[in-house]
């Protein structure tokens, strides 16, 4: 790997967001690169310092309970909430597909007829 590929994704590597294979490639580059190695070490120190200095806050139990209750109520009122597109959206998608297919067929027919009418030299 090259530094240009690694640097933009150092935060993703540090946060454990890369796939294992890519993470292994990153690790190899970071261990051998005199520029990227110290950079990731500095980012790790920064992350660890922030974790030590920043307090860990949890939402109050009452707030968590109200949020859970609201989610259960919303799910019970709309069991298919978020799982289905509205009927008008499905209808619009069908129309769009029909227009696209129709346009493609018209274009094919038009191109064929234009090709057949062109004089040959």
Structural overview:
The two termini are 55 Å apart. This protein folds into two domains: 3-53; 61-117. It has helices at residues 3-6, 10-14, 20-32, 36-53, 61-77, 87-117. The model has no long low-confidence stretch (mean pLDDT 79). α3 (20-32) packs across α4 (36-53). By secondary structure, the protein is mainly α. The chain is flat, with a radius of gyration of 29 Å.
- The average pLDDT value, as a whole number, equals 79
Q: Give the radius of gyration.
A: 29 Å
Q: How many separate structural domains?
A: 2
Number of strands: 0
Task: Describe, in short, the structure shown.
The protein is built from six helices and no strands. The protein is mostly helical.
SSE layout and pairing:
Blueprint: H1 3-6, H2 10-14, H3 20-32, H4 36-53, H5 61-77, H6 87-117
Helix pairs in contact: 3-4
Keyphrases for this structure?
2 domains; 0% strand
């Amino acid at each position: 790997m090259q530094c240009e590929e690694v640097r933009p994704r150092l935060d993703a590597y540090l946060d454990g967001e890369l796939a294992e294979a890519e993470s292994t490639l990153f690790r190899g580059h970071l261990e051998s690169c005199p520029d990227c190695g110290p950079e990731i070490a500095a980012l790790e120190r920064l992350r660890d310092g922030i974790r030590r200095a920043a307090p860990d806050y949890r939402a109050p139990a009452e707030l968590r309970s109200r949020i859970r209750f609201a989610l259960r109520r919303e799910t019970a009122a709309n069991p298919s909430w978020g799982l289905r597109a509205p009927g008008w959206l499905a209808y619009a998608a069908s129309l769009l597909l029909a227009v696209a297919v129709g346009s493609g067929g018209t274009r094919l027919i038009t191109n064929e007829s234009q090709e057949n009418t062109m004089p040959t030299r």
